[in-house]
Amino acid sequence: MLLLSRLYSPNTRFILPFFITTLMIISYPLLIPMMTAHSALWINLPFALLGIVIILNYTLPQAKSGLIAIIMLIAYGIIINWLQVSLANTDTKLIFCLLATLLPLNLLLLRFIGYPLRYVLASVTLVSLLMLQCAIGAAVSYFYQADFSNWQQIHLFTYHNISSLPLILVVFNLAISCCTGALAIKYHQRIDRHIFICTLLSTTTFIFFHYPFISSSAFTLCALLLLIDIGYCRYQQSFYDPSTQLADHRALEQALTRLHSPYTIAVIDLDNPDKIIEKHTPQAIIDIQRSVANLLTQQPQLLPHCYFASQQIIVIFEHMDCDAALVILTQLQQDIAAAKHIIDPIAVESEHNETAAKPKKGRKKTLKISVSMGISHSHDEHLPMTVLERATDALMTGKQTKKKKNQIYTAVNND
């Protein structure tokens, strides 16, 4: 699992799928006899594996990965059922070009389009939209087959020594793959990794479409990579704090062992928690911590580096100096102070009616709070745990001496 954790480093998220795909293409002539001997199994394997991805994502949050698998499953079904005739056939070539255009677009757009919280509703809506696209594609294929034959000779130049895919669509698919790869490097969301994997392998399918069983091989590899990443995500969930849904102290310990300079560590703590408990209840602290954690989850660049340990939130800024981290933390501090944090009511049993079926609940309350932060930047001679301790010490010392709210305290050694 430590090896799988390397998938979360920015470079590996791009290099590893690309390396595996390149290795598959280089070794493909050696795989053809095996695939031919088990052709029926090889053709049906992507259906089974992508179906497993869809089922597993039903129980996971951020179920867009399941929607990605639905898109890939429908695309593979189109390839198996309608693209097994020679591309010299005009009708087949038109369907091939439409699929090579719409598949990467659908994958990329799924990254930016919101979807309903209910997975089943989102799946039904997506399938309906994909079926509509298939119907439009069939209509275009039926009515404009003759026009397409003339149009492709002028605009869709194909260099058959390289690929059966028109050159303009080769460039288009490679551009989409590079775009999704950049998203996977810049952001740390599971959806970005999965879209990059799918666009990369679908592009490989279209460019090397003249290879036998290439679609089965690429889509099988795609499903396997998705399953590996989902398995690691499930493993990560065991290292999450149940109340805040942030990574806990065990995940923090693992993250600290992998850190390399430069990096900055920030520690976030509530101001005046004793007064909150005195005025409300101890449960109010948990509700506020959960609310602050929800604000952090809305920051994609922060979420993979947020941890909850010792009743404090720790944020790690990899490859970032103290000044750049201060800009982000200042904005975050302002957002936390401006937000209204909901405190759930405590159920209270009625003293006068012991036979009451349900305890009474009070009204939900909203509360504005502030947080203070301690920040420390790494130095070559300091271990990550030392940097964390300096940030914690700066926070605790600042709160005890200045006794001001909504402050950011920088460790003394960060000159």
Automatic annotation (TrEMBL):
Query: Which segments cross the bilayer?
Result: 12-35, 41-60, 67-87, 93-113, 120-144, 164-185, 217-235
| Entry keyword annotation includes Transmembrane helix | yes
> Entry's Gene3D superfamilies?
3.30.70.270
Does this entry carry the keyword Transmembrane? yes
Q: Which InterPro entries match?
A: GGDEF_dom (IPR000160), Nucleotide_cyclase (IPR029787), Rev_trsase/Diguanyl_cyclase (IPR043128)
Alphabetically sorted, this entry's keywords are: Membrane, Transmembrane, Transmembrane helix
Looking at the record, the residues that make up the GGDEF domain are 261-411
Q: Which domain of life is it from?
A: Bacteria
Q: Which SUPFAM superfamilies match?
A: Nucleotide cyclase
The record, for PROSITE patterns, names: GGDEF
Full protein name: GGDEF domain-containing protein
Organism of provenance: Photobacterium aquimaris
Classification of source organism? Bacteria, Pseudomonadati, Pseudomonadota, Gammaproteobacteria, Vibrionales
